[in-house]
Amino acid sequence: MAEAFCPDIDNFFQTEANRIGYTPSYIPWTATPWEGNDIVPKIQWEDGMGENPNVLIYDRVTPLNGPIEFQTVSFNNGEGAGPCDPPTSTLYPATRRLAFELKGAALNSDWVCLDSARMTYNLAQQASNVLRQMDQNVKNAWQNQRRDQFTAVASNKAIADAAMTTNPTVFATGTIGQLRREMLDYWYDSLVANGANINNKLASTEYNQPLLPLILSREAQATLVNNDTTINNIRWSNNQNDRLLGPRGSFVNLDGFKMMIDIQAARWNLVGGQWVRVPFYSTVTTAGQASIVNPAYATAEYEDLYIGSPEVVQFAIPSPTTNSGPMSFAAQNYLGDVRWINEYDQQCNVDRNKGFFRARMTYGSKPGIPEFGVTLRFRRCAQSWEVDSTCS
User: Fold this and answer.
1) Under DSSP, is residue 150 helix (H, G, I), strand (E, B) or coil?
2) Within a domain: 30
3) b/e for 19-58, b at 16 or more Cβ within 10 A?
């Protein structure tokens, strides 16, 4: 019989070699519009549909061989068809199938042994901070998955070049320019013409015209506001000009869009003709190392913005089913809720005095209407400051 593998336990709680006073501090995580279910809603995964279930989409269609034709109604004259037999067009359905699959991940804390942990400072409080970090990592993972899967499913992957090159599967790598208001005008007209605002629960109206949801960074919003035409319109308006004196990200409704600020908008570099993602948080390489906001994120060359719709993609989450016929399983949680694991094991946990925190996440990106989503990639320009070293 093979010897059981038991994990090494390293007490990661702080002890009182010297007295620890006051309440421990912790660095919070930043939230984004992708944290909730507004842009990418959650639904239930249907079991028994195979590993790649299909979604059927009925496209908009018009009659075969041209539009519906009308003829003047008059009396029959005995020559061919009359008013009882008008010209007839035939409509044929157009459908598509899109497949998707389940994706899963899990997050564990380090193991904890009660017998050593009981000697540490304020065990309950330190454990609460570990639980908080677990929870925040799960939230951040869901945010990133929603943002990335929205882009993956959306069929409008555009770059800010002279032709607004758009591809349903990949981003082009041509000569990419800075963000311009006219680029968003183009997408606004295209999406509204396609009906992307009609059932969009995030959209609203202003002056009887649609407002489409636009998810972008504060920096990108400042670029749009500082457009010569836009900033003059704001400066001489009656109710928006005071926002020019507010912090970046102050504008909500602007140029036909309802804006939501994404402080972690995806940023990229072009390396050898390939897109390379620049993460918002730095990568931890050793146990116990702190993760900080990545310095390279501030200098990345390109950034994405998103014109969103909850009709583009949904996250299908498996149910926590525990019984299937004669089989019984432990209740599963695929939403990433953190739980404490302290199970009996004859070899490694016979006294049940060891345990760890665990969170499990599983979803399938169920496509809706991919044409209603846009991700636009544009060039950022590095900040520069003119420094006057002289004194007058």
Assistant:
1) helix
2) no
3) eeeeeeeeeebeebbbeeeebbbeeebeeeeeeebeeeee
How many domains are there within the chain?
1
- Residue 10 CB partners (closer than 8 Å, separation 6+): 110, 287
* Residues 122-159 pLDDT 10s: 666 667 778 888 899 999 999 999 999 999 999 999 99
In degrees rounded to 5, what are phi and psi of residue 54? -105, 150
In three-state secondary structure terms, 131 is: helix
Taking the CA of residue 65 as centre, how many other CA atoms within 13 Å lie in the half-sphere pointing to its CB? 5
SS3 assignment, position 316: strand
Per the listing, tokens 């199970």 go with: 343
| Chain segment 164-201, per-residue pLDDT in tens | 999 999 999 989 999 998 999 999 999 999 999 998 99
**Would the pLDDT of 16 be above 50?**
no
Place of tokens 């972690």: 264
Q: What is the mean pLDDT of the chain?
A: 84
SS (H, E, C) 194-228: CCCCCCCCCCEEECCEEEEEEEECHHHHHHHHCCH
Structural domain includes residue 125: yes
392 inside domain: no
pLDDT computed for residue 326 by the predictor: 84
Whether 77 and 389 have beta carbons less than 8 Å apart is answered as no
166, 173, 131: which is closest to 151 by C-alpha? 166
CB atoms closer than 10 angstroms to residue 329: 10
What domain range includes position 328?
Answer: 42-57+94-379
User: What three-state secondary structure class fits 241?
Assistant: helix
